Amino acid sequence: MEDKIKQIKEEFKEKIKNKSLKELKELEIYFLGRKGKVSILFQFFKTVPKERRKHFGAKINELKSFIEKGISTEIQRAESIEASRKLEEEKIDVTLPGIKLHTGGLHILSQTISRAEDIFLSMGFDVMVGPEIEEDYYNFEALNIPEFHPARAMQDTFYLSKKILLRTQTSPIQVRIMEKYKPPIRIIAMGRCYRKDAPDSSHFPVFHQIEGLVIDKKVTFANLKGTLSLFAKRMFGEEVKVRFTPSYFPFVEPGAETSISCVICGGKGCSVCKNTGWLEMGGSGMVHPNVLKNVGIDPEIYQGFAFGWGMERIAMVKHKIPDIRMFYQNDLRFLKQFKG
Ligand code: DAH
In b/e form, how buried is each residue of 231-262, taking b as 16+ CB within 10 angstroms? Predict the structure, then answer.
């Protein structure tokens, strides 16, 4: 018995050296746990003759408290080593420069759309929206473009079924608004349009338009000219002029192509305006009586004007962006230049 106690003490002294916190906890169980070395000694204790029991009892208890003490001192030591190691590791250098947070910004197209909306809102227009997945009826038929009309060829698009398509223009919103609201109407509508165009520097299968529609009694072409001239001045600068040249769009009569004086050369002629002095922005005209009739508005009482300009075109001219594809390439070097 005596030997056994000694042996355990020696084993403990040997094992306790240089142990980590985790190993110390394991040692604690190994010696003092329910099935540990010391507990087993207590079992042997029963076999010891009665008169020796007191002696051995004291010895075992002594061993037990020796081990307990030893372990707890070692645990304390290991804990303080662990704490200072952590402190050392997690030291914060408060003199280091901070990490710059990257904040997002609005895409240049979104910024241009907001600007256009603000201008028209200040002129008393309401801002409306319409569906991008559109019915053939609204996109063509109701706009005086029947099934075999050649104007459809210029606006080939993506069909979801025979009569459902991705809108080629924002003009169908005109019809939807006139069906829903009685004149006077004064709205703009913006949004994505789709055409089966091969991408090049000025075409992309997805693009945005801004559509305008005014319906009232005594609306004239002069109102159209005044409205677009004011918009152009607010958007591009006071010196900018708008030019109307006769053109054909089935849903207006008369119809006009609208251009602004070149913002690069001031109208003298340069490579951007191909030496014409003018930049084409979109179509416009007086709403065709057939369109009014289609929505039950009497063309003898009401007239109106409409226009549709390309949003990318506006942004390209305003910010001198040379290629429409840049809007959709998500190149941060491009986008960051217009961080708004
Ligand atoms: N929707 C036409 C297009 O995409 C542009 C247009 C022309 C819109 C004349 C109009 C308009 O509102 O009156 O080619």
Answer: bbbbbbeeebebbbeeeebbbbeebbbbbbbb
pLDDT digits over 111-169, tens only?
999 999 999 999 999 999 999 999 999 999 999 999 988 888 888 899 999 999 999 99
**205: β partners:** none
Confidence (pLDDT) at 85: 87
Which amino acid, 60? I
Residue having the nearest C-alpha atom to atom 3 of ligand 1: 169
Is the pLDDT assigned to residue 221 strictly greater than 80? yes
Q: For 247-264, what is each residue's pLDDT tens digit?
A: 999 999 999 999 999 998
CA of 194 to the centre of ligand 1 (A): 14
Domain boundaries, the chain: 2-90, 108-338
Query: Which DSSP symbol is given to 97?
Result: P
Q: Give the position, in ligand 1's atom list, of the atom nearest the Cα of 287.
A: 13
Query: What is the reported pLDDT for 332?
Result: 93
- Per DSSP bridges, beta strands 185-194 and 126-128 are parallel
User: What's the N-to-C CA distance of the chain in angstroms?
Assistant: 86
Sign of CA dihedral 46, 52, 53, 55: negative
Architecture of the 108-338 domain: 2-Layer Sandwich (3.30)
* Pocket test residue of 139, 169, 195, 209 for ligand 1, highest count of atoms within 8 A of CB: 169
Residues 203 and 305: beta-carbon distance below 8 Å: no
Section 317-333 average pLDDT: 94
| pLDDT reported for residue 123 | 97
Record the pTM.
0.73
Nearest atom in ligand 1 to 213's CA? 12
> For residues 31 and 29, what is the distance between their CA atoms, to the nearest angstrom?
5
Encode burial over 186-210: b for 16+ CB neighbours within 10 A, e otherwise.
bbbbbbebbbebeeeebebeebbbb
Query: E strand or H helix at 112, and its extent?
Result: helix 108-122
